[in-house]
Amino acid sequence: MVRTRIAPSPTGSDVHVGSIATALMNYAWAKKNNGQFIIRIEDTDRTRIVEGGEAQMLKTLKRIGLVADESPIVGGPYAPYRQSERLDIYKKYAEELVAKGKAYYCICTPERLTKMRNEQQTKKQIPKYDRLCLKKQDQISKIKDQTPHVIRLQIPEGQIKFNDAVRGEITIDAKNIDDQVILKSDGFPTYHLGVVIDDYLMKITHVIRGEEWLPSTPKHVILYRAFGWELPVFAHISLLRNPDKSKLSKRKNPVWTSYYLDQGIFPEALLNYLALMGWSHPEGKDIFSLEEYIRVFDIKDIQTSSPVFDPVKLEWMNGMYIRQKSIRQLADQILEFYKDKKLDEALVEKSIPLIQERIKKLSDYLTLCEFFFKAPEKYEIDITDKKDFFGKVHSELEKVADWKALAIGESLANLAKKLEIKNSQFFADMRMVITGKKISPPLNESMEILGKNECLKRLTIN
Questions:
Q1: 384-458 belongs to which CATH class?
Q2: Phi then psi for 416, rounded to 5 degrees?
Q3: β-sheet with 3-6: strand ranges across
Q4: Using an 8 Å Cβ cutoff, are 207 and 234 in contact?
């Protein structure tokens, strides 16, 4: 059975959009093959853990809809595996490697290691452990229980070869690889030991992850072979880039997934956009459902070029999803998005035909439509010198019996002609007094929704 996983670390305040893109590929590949998708929290680097980070990550994964198929504890599909709860397992397997002569105990102090590496750098050598402790294993094994120690992987000689489903065969010379610490003195595994043991015990068949882990993969291959385990399929995907091709980072654009969801980007639109990061639909489509993506996705089609994550393109795509909604569907989503504001449901529904083609995310709605729910408290352009003009408009609109957009528009156009004011200036002033803004939904239709009494009231400015 195909089994894939997403294994985030709670070292940030949320899940990076790049991690969601990776999770999506893992999820799709599992579902396409009637397999299983696992969530595992890699929390062994205790110095970098952000308080509340794990809870936020799991909340975001739930919001985006990437549901795990298996949980180690009672608690539903979002109860993950946690490495910090599996320390005895890592210790057992690390000591097994020592017994097999594939790893060894090391009692070198941080001071000695720092001095050694500084000397190597001075001599322009590759910084590597000098294996001093490997030569003293008999002695160290007798005192290790009373002495702080780590376990190091003994890197074999020769070349390390493995196949990557995206990048083909890769060969690394083992002489350039350090004897990696795999179990730290505090009993926690390093990433390398933890990921290999967990992927094996959880029967992960495909390791689909970012290319930043490619340099670590030879160490993982060595570990698999040291244990005598079959390798999974490795597939290293390219990292997301900013539109200027720089590395995607929060210094240039928001990178946390919850930011985009909180802006009113639909989860399905975000997944659709991220599906196009490093992959193309075989029919060249931009818009497609998660179900369709699962059906047509294939690892062999993953591209090696670095995909560009463009928030502007994401908003465009979300706008396409907005326009596919019925008025009732969009009204429900706007009401839910602004539930704390308790918007008038009838007004929201009436306003949607005016703005559905204009907004790109749910948070755009009140920017355009707040005037429907309360009169402007300030105006983008000062109109206090136009009281006489608005008085004349007030008198004209009082005569409109059938308060519909067409009749309102005709009355205003006739008044503009009578006063010899250009339509552009006349309606710009009207838009300002009614909405408070230079840009708004269609004015006549907005005034119909607001009602005659409210419009006349707004024409009376202090």
A1: mainly alpha
A2: -60, -40
A3: 3-6, 36-41, 81-82
A4: yes
Structural fold of domain 3-73+240-301 = Rossmann fold (3.40.50)
Among the listed residues 92, 115, 175, 250, the single catalytic one is 250
Residues 6+ apart with CB under 8 A from 46: 84, 186, 188
User: Are both 87-237 and 384-458 of the same fold?
Assistant: no
pTM of the model: 0.92
CA-closest candidate to residue 187, choices 145, 131, 157, 232? 145
Letter for the amino acid at 382? D
**So where are the chain's domains?**
3-73+240-301, 87-237, 326-370, 384-458
Which residues, 6+ apart, have CB-to-CB distance to 97 below 8 Å? Answer: 103, 151, 153, 182, 223, 226, 227
CA separation for the pair 127, 152 (Å, rounded) = 15
Which residue intervals of 123-266 are DSSP H helices?
137-143, 191-201, 217-227, 257-262
**Cα–Cα nearest to 61, from 91, 41, 33:** 41
Q: Active-site residue 313, yes or no? A: no
**CATH number of the domain at 87-237, out of 3.40.50.620, 3.40.50.40, 3.30.360.10, 3.10.450.710?**
3.40.50.620
Q: pLDDT truncated to tens, each residue of the chain (462 aa)?
A: 999 999 988 888 899 999 999 999 999 999 999 999 999 988 888 888 888 888 899 899 999 999 888 876 545 544 578 898 899 999 999 999 999 999 999 999 999 999 999 999 999 998 999 999 999 999 998 998 899 999 999 999 999 999 999 999 999 999 989 999 999 999 999 999 999 999 999 999 999 999 999 999 999 999 999 999 999 999 999 999 999 888 887 777 789 999 999 999 999 999 999 999 999 999 999 999 999 999 999 999 999 999 999 999 999 999 999 999 999 999 999 999 999 999 999 999 999 999 999 999 999 999 999 999 999 999 999 998 999 999 999 999 999 999 999 999 999 999 999 999 999 999 999 999 999 999 999 999 999 999 999 999 999 987
